[in-house]
Every structure is written in C-alpha cells, then in structure tokens.
Amino acid sequence: MANHGDTERCDAARNRRRLLEAASLLVAERGVDAVTMEAVAARAGVGKGTVFRRFGSRAGLMQSLLDHTERELQQAFLTGSPPLGPGAHPVDRLVAFGRARIALIEVQGELVRATESSSETRFSVPPRLISLTHIESLLRAAGTPGDRSLLAQYLFAPLEASLVLHQWRVLGYSLDRLADTWADFARRVAGPSGPGPADRPRSVN
C-alpha cells in the first residue's frame, strides 16, 4: 500500500510541473511580462493561492521556470536522442547544442538574461558550468587540439542570452541566421564532423 506522504509528494511534484508547463506556454505565446501568478493559475486551471504556495512569489516562479527549462535542455544533451544526445558525431552534437541553446533563448531569453545580469556569480552558476563541461567533453571526443577549456568558453560566449537578444531584437539578425553562423563557427573551431553515413558510420561519443 502506498505511503500517504509519498502520494502527497508525488501530487505536489505533479502540480508543480503542471504550473511550470503552463508558465512556459505563456512565455512562448505572450512573452515574459504575461507570466503573472494569476495568469499561470488560470492557464493551469487552479486557484491563485496554489501558485503562491508552490513558488512564494513571481520571482520564485521565474527562477523555478528557468531551472525547469535548463534541466530539460541538460537532460536532452546528456541522455536524449541524437544529434543533441549521445549517438552522433561530437561535432554534430556540438552544433545541435548551440542551436538548442539559441532556441531556448527565443522562449526564455528574458529570464536567462535577468539571471545573467543580476548575479555577481553568473560565470559560476551550475547550468553554465554544466554546459561548459559538456562542450569541453565534445571537443575532447572530436580530437580538437588546443586549450579545450578556453575554447569551450569562447564557444559558449556567443550563446549568452544578453548577446543573442541584442543581436536579434536590436541589430535585427534572425535567430536562424545566428544559429547557422554559430554552427559554422563551431565547426571551424572543433573540426570537421567526418564523412556522412554513406561513406562510413560516424564515430560516437
């Protein structure tokens, strides 16, 4: 028989995920400013008090939403399907990571930028360090020469939300153009991804 406490925790986790999914949809459809406690409650079909009990404040909701989105991306590049996940050539995985990161900024950019600009320790926050470690491991798997730790930082810098949002909204570059140019840059730094499957199977990481 299931423990009552375990059931309550499962229900709480399920409700929290439901609220975060509702907030994500609001960001995608209307932008960050549309994400209010009332709007999330209405979208999720619950009372406003439920949202406050789960997150405490709008700031708590925003941070939880950003953490939720980051975890989804991390799960995708660590254990998801190729080319973002394992099973593809490391350079192809690197390119897929950059494209996924830019796509994330399209939806969650204001949240990411707020976190970047408000934290004195933004260069050492866990999501950034995980991304840098991932990039460095792909460079190592690809046999990229040089200081891979610094190269990983150079590759990640153009993916910072503040820069991408400036290039997109102020300078007028399309996100597709930014992603394509970053992919070209990544391939120049990391090296070729090797012949396609018609020639021989790609190596895997």
From TrEMBL:
Keyword tRNA processing belongs to the record: no
Keywords attached to this entry: DNA-binding
Record's keyword annotation contains Transport: no
Protein name per its UniProtKB record: TetR/AcrR family transcriptional regulator
PROSITE patterns the record matches: HTH_TETR_2 (PS50977)
Domain HTH tetR-type span(s) in chain numbering: 13-73
Entries under Pfam families matching the protein: TetR_N
Domain of life: Bacteria
Taxonomic lineage from the root: Bacteria, Bacillati, Actinomycetota, Actinomycetes, Mycobacteriales
DNA-binding region: 36-55
